[in-house]
Amino acid sequence: MTRSHVRTLGVLILFAVGSGCGAAKTQPLFARSLAELVPHNDRDHFVFLVERPTPNGFRPAALQVEHVTKLPEGNDYEVALSEDGMATGRVILRDDGTTLWLVAEEDYTRGLRLSYEPPLPYLSVPLFAGESRATSSADLRQLGTNQAAGRLPVVQVTRAHAEPAGQWFAGAYAGGVRLEVQRTYQSPDGPMQLSSTTILVPGIGEVRSEGAASGSPVMRRQLACATIGNRRIGDCRSLAERFR
Q1: Using 50, 70 and 90 to split pLDDT, how confident is the model at 17?
Q2: Does residue 202 lie within any of the structural domains?
Q3: Long-range contacts for 63-71 (Cβ within 8 Å, ≥24 apart)?
Q4: Are 23 and 127 in contact (CB under 8 A)?
Q5: What is the pLDDT at residue 197?
Q6: How far apart, in whole angstroms, are the C-alpha atoms of residue 94 and residue 6?
Q7: Bridge partners, 173 (sequence order)
Q8: Is position 21 within any domain?
């Protein structure tokens, strides 16, 4: 597998899986359910406004959508990803009640699937401030043929902090969690690093994030609107007209 393959996969899922488990401390940052800090109910729907760098600063560039589907296999969930109406891939997550695990990622544009063995921790509760480290092996295969395309060692480092208050697209937030993640893939062409910073707000999930892969520009996104369970966050109907 080449560095460009890793970079493409990283840009695809950088925001979708930008969090991790915290190291043990005395007082947790968050001690309630996984589904509250990272909602993933069947049919949950999230729309993000993506900003990319220009000579005049960051500017709105695309709308990204994440749609959650409960899979029939155990406690697995599919997060289908699209950008400006075009399907770009999907992420498979597993909820064991205390930890949300990253099982696999698929990149439709390059026809690649990346499976983690063991799965990488996405988020655990209770969540504590501090740093944690996880290792895994990523098996890369071609979609359609299932032909092997490589196996890469992976190291993930996560830092969790309190995020008292701030602004996002739909207004202000308080009582959030900041998660900084660095994931390094050891490819034959050398190490490839993905980094992301994600702000999670209980009851909503990700409201803001930014991230980049080695050699690629930073991208930012903000939650614009969502349907979480039976609740509506923001106004999805007016969003398309506003950024048409």
Answers
A1: low
A2: yes
A3: 63/224, 63/239, 63/240, 63/243, 64/15, 64/221, 66/16, 67/43, 68/39, 68/40, 68/41, 68/42, 68/43, 68/44, 69/42, 69/43, 70/41, 70/42
A4: no
A5: 96
A6: 22
A7: 166
A8: yes
Q: Kindly report, residue by residue over 94-138, the tens digit of the pLDDT.
A: 999 999 999 999 999 989 999 999 999 989 999 999 999 999 999
Domain of 206, in residue numbers: 3-237
Phi-psi label, residue 2: left if phi above 0, alpha if psi -120 to 50, beta otherwise: beta
The total number of structural domains in the chain stands at 1
How far is residue 117's CA from residue 135's CA, in Å, rounded to a whole number? Answer: 9
Contacts of 79 (CB under 8 A, 6+ apart): 16, 40, 66, 67, 68, 90, 91, 92, 93
Cβ 188 vs Cβ 242: under 8 Å: no
Collapsing DSSP states into helix, strand and coil, what is residue 9? helix
Buried residues in 114-127 as b, exposed as e (16+ CB within 10 A): bbbeebbbbbbbeb
> Residue 180 falls within a domain, yes or no?
yes
Closest to 13 measured CA to CA, from 85, 93, 89, 68: 89
Q: What is the pTM of this model?
A: 0.86
**Does residue 162 have a pLDDT over 80?**
yes
Residue 243 in any domain: the answer is no
